[in-house]
Each structure stands twice: as structure tokens, then as C-alpha cells.
Write a structure and sequence with these properties.
The structure is a homodimer of 187-residue chains.
Chain A: E1 2-6, H1 10-20, E2 23-27, H2 39-53, E3 61-70, H3 81-87, H4 89-97, E4 103-113, E5 119-130, E6 146-148, H5 155-158, H6 167-186
Parallel strand pairs in A: 1-2, 1-3
Antiparallel strand pairs in A: 3-4, 4-5, 5-6
């Protein structure tokens, strides 16, 4: 089996290929994302649009959307996390919490458009909290401000350990199970 | 001349028709909006998509996008204002300002897709600030927390006076001037 993973990030592709155990090509068509706080909704639209942009290829098209959900903010920033990062940054997100409840979750939605155009969604979630200040040099995006439950380290301080059980790893593991079951049915 | 105004809000249509002095029909095709902080970008995409959804009609298709830009937030919430309102509400926006600089501007972008499919954008801006607490019963959305420069009233406390010189009125007046010049050229 082969599939195409829509991402501009080569390290994401490698990591995904390692977890899934299938050959993943990388493609980066320019797909505008729809406005929503909901990861699954954004990823689903993106998977459909990417499949169309790639000319409905004879193999599955995989996309990812991920971000941070602050409990006290009732869904924000959610699938709009990148706009928070791009405008106020990690420091700004902490300032906007204004000393209130820092409970948050990290979410990754994978959407796979199959060769019939049907979209299957797999969501991985890690509970945790926003750090009191950005810490750590590894990773990217909001990694310096997310502390998963059960540790005091931010994603950006965990290095490779992050990949053991991140929101993204959980979503990819669900997809792997689904692919294995599907292979079993087809065999 | 006639045009179609894509809005679910009948009072917006009436107001727009009054300012423009042209007959506006209302249509409400279900158009997902693209993720961006930028009003003109969101409105431009929406105008193209709406024109397509309406079957490229032989008259202009007009759409609107509006919201609040908080100076201290470097573009946020911008064209994503409705997601802030839907999750944390007006009270939440004030809390997230955390006692900091409340300077803000109200922005309305109108995008008109003409009968050739070209899109023309008109933007109206009003400087002001976010109120210390929501006040007033008129209007909708973030009207209770926006205080235009030169007054102490929120949009929601101004009643009909709001329409005299709002971000939306300014955008529609620009469009009116453009339509009049265009009419002059064609005559």
C-alpha cells in the first residue's frame, strides 16, 4: 500500500511513515482551510480539497490538522491555533489566559480520503495544561507551552520522547489499527 | 441595476439597499469561509464561491465580512471574530484582554464579484476601543463591547445612530461611489 500525506513538513512525513509502516509520499498542494474550531471538520474539508487538487489519485490522500484547546476558552483556539501563534505567539496565549485556569488539551485530527472519495477521521487527544511560560527548544509551534498530564516538561523539553505518546502519535496509531483491520478484511 | 447580497440577515440587506440606492436581493448559499485574519481575503474567497454556488448569475454578487481587530493582539480576532464570540462571548474577549490596552478597530470588507468573475473589495474602518464591560441592548454580535472614537457609547447603545458612520456604512459608501463612477463611465 502507498498513500500521499499532505504536509510541508518532511519530519512529520517521516514520523508518520514510521508509525504507520506504509510508504508515504509527501505532497503540498495549496489548500485554503475552512473556518472552524473543530479539527475533524477542518481536516475533512482539507482531505476532500487535497484529493481533488491532486486529481483524485488511485491511492489514499491523508491530511492532518492539530492544535491546542484551552478548557476555559470553550473550544478556542482549536483548529485556529496557528492564527493565535502567528499573531500573539506563545507568550501572547499565556497572557490572554490572564492567570486563570490553564487546563488544555492537544488534539490531532487525521483525515484520510480513500480512493472512492469517502473521508475517514482519526483523532488523538492528550490532556494537559498550558505552561506558566514558554520552555524548551525542541519541536515547533506551541510545543514550548504545552505540558502533558503526568509530566512537568513541555513538549519542547521532551525531545524525541514527545513522539512516544503525543496527540499526533495517538491519531496515527488509530489510523494504523484501521489500516490493519482493512487489510485483514481485504485479504 | 440589480445585485444579490449574500447574507442571512434581512436588516443588513435593507440597510445596504438604502445606502447603495440599488435593488438588492438576498441569497444565503452555504459557503464555508477560509481561515484568515484578513477580512478582504475572506470576503474575496467568499464572493468567488458564492458566485459559483449561485450559478454565475448575470448580475453582481456581493458579500460582507466584518469583525473586530484588537491592537494589542496583532490582527486577532480579525476575520475570526465570530469564533471568539461563539466560544467565549463578549465577556470572554474582555477577560482575555487582561486589563491591557483596549484599543481596537471595527472593520467591514465588502467583496463584489462582477459578471466577469472579477472581485472588487471595499473596506470600511472605525477606530475605537473595547469597552470595560458589555453595555447596550441594540445591534448584534460584538456591538455591546465596541466604543467608536469620539463617543463614550458602545455600538449597542447608539441605536440607529450607529448606522450614520459605522465600519459597515463606510464600506458601503465606498461601494456606492464606485458604482456611481462605473455608471458614469458606461453612460
Amino acid at each position: 500500500m502507498r498513500a500521499v500525506f499532505v504536509t510541508t513538513n518532511e519530519s512529520k512525513r517521516r514520523e508518520a511513515q514510521r508509525i504507520l509502516g506504509v510508504e508515504l509520499e509527501r505532497a503540498a498542494p495549496d489548500i485554503p482551510e475552512v473556518q472552524s474550531l473543530d479539527f475533524a471538520e477542518v481536516a475533512t474539508h482539507k482531505a476532500r480539497a487535497a484529493r481533488k487538487a491532486l486529481g483524485s489519485p488511485p491511492y489514499p490522500v491523508l491530511v492532518e490538522d492539530s492544535g491546542l484547546v484551552v478548557g476555559a476558552w470553550n473550544g478556542l483556539p482549536g483548529a485556529l491555533t496557528k492564527w493565535f501563534l502567528g499573531s500573539v505567539g506563545n507568550e501572547g496565549i499565556i497572557e490572554m489566559l490572564c492567570g486563570g485556569d490553564r487546563g488544555a488539551r492537544a488534539v490531532c485530527a487525521l483525515a484520510l480520503a480513500d480512493t472512492h472519495g469517502a473521508v475517514h477521521v482519526f483523532e488523538g487527544v492528550i490532556q494537559g495544561e498550558v505552561a506558566a511560560e514558554p520552555r524548551g527548544e525542541e519541536g515547533f509551534g506551541w510545543d514550548p507551552i504545552f505540558v502533558p498530564q503526568g509530566t512537568r516538561l513541555t513538549y519542547a523539553e521532551m525531545g524525541e520522547d514527545k513522539h512516544e505518546d503525543s496527540h499526533r502519535a495517538r491519531a496515527f496509531r488509530q489510523l494504523r489499527v484501521w489500516l490493519e483491520e482493512k487489510d485483514g478484511q481485504e485479504a
